[in-house]
Recover the amino acids of this structure.
């Protein structure tokens, strides 16, 4: 995942992150607003994983401010299709609580805890869309992320089990499919973007390298390839997620 250039303010970086996905927002105002708020959210996730308390505080404050606008605008009167969602207000409140908890953890220099706390906001937003039959490109990236985390957490453990390489190959097969889906489900506004396509290619190549190591039954190469899975995705998520 790339770092924010020293010459660029956090606000400018957030604007860049948001702008890259502006044309892939949905047709309803609530989803559009949530997608706009997703840019600052991604930066907050990144910052809490980078070791800087001050920059994490600033990023979370920006994410909170953007989310507060959604609560203010739609909390009492959500637009369709969310107007029939009986859990809508509760979900808005849960994301607000996630940000508050993460901000408190950052103030106590608990950046790892704050990062894990923030992960919940992604799930809540995805659940809101799913309940209301709304699909955005972020959902495909989230599906890949969930499977990637499973491979990262369980991959090395599986290698120590009987037929572990074969079991891991099955998991990587699912990851390969989801990496492919990120390409086939991306809107034209992204597939026509050379930077997006470069990022996607890097993600898909990292999966292909892991699959090749598994097919060769090379344990050392497999462990090395597992270690290279997260980086390309993180870079892609920060700007296009």
């Amino acid at each position: 995942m790339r770092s924010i250039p020293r010459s660029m303010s956090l606000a400018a970086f957030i604007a860049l992150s948001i702008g890259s996905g502006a044309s892939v927002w949905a047709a309803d105002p609530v989803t559009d607003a949530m997608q706009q708020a997703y840019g600052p959210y991604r930066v907050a996730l990144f910052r809490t994983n980078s070791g800087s308390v001050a920059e994490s505080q600033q990023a979370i404050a920006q994410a909170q401010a953007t989310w507060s606008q959604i609560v203010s605008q739609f909390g009492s009167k959500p637009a369709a299709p969310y107007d029939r969602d009986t859990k809508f207000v509760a979900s808005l409140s849960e994301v607000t609580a996630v940000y508050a908890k993460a901000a408190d953890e950052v103030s106590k220099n608990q950046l790892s805890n704050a990062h894990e706390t923030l992960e919940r906001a992604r799930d809540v937003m995805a659940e809101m869309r799913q309940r209301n039959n709304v699909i955005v490109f972020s959902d495909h990236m989230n599906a890949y992320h969930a499977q990637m985390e499973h491979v990262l957490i369980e991959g090395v453990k599986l290698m120590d089990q009987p037929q572990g390489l074969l079991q891991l190959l099955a998991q990587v097969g699912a990851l390969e499919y989801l990496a492919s889906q990120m390409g086939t489900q991306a809107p034209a506004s992204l597939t026509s973007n050379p930077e997006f396509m470069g990022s996607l290619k890097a993600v898909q190549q990292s999966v292909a390298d892991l699959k090749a190591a598994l097919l060769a039954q090379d344990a050392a190469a497999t462990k090395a390839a597992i270690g290279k899975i997260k980086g390309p995705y993180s870079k892609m998520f920060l700007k296009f997620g």
Notes: The first helix runs from residue 10 to 19. The mean pLDDT is 88. Residues 10-131 form a domain with the Four Helix Bundle (Hemerythrin (Met), subunit A) fold (CATH 1.20.120). Residues 68 and 101 are 15 Å apart (CA to CA).
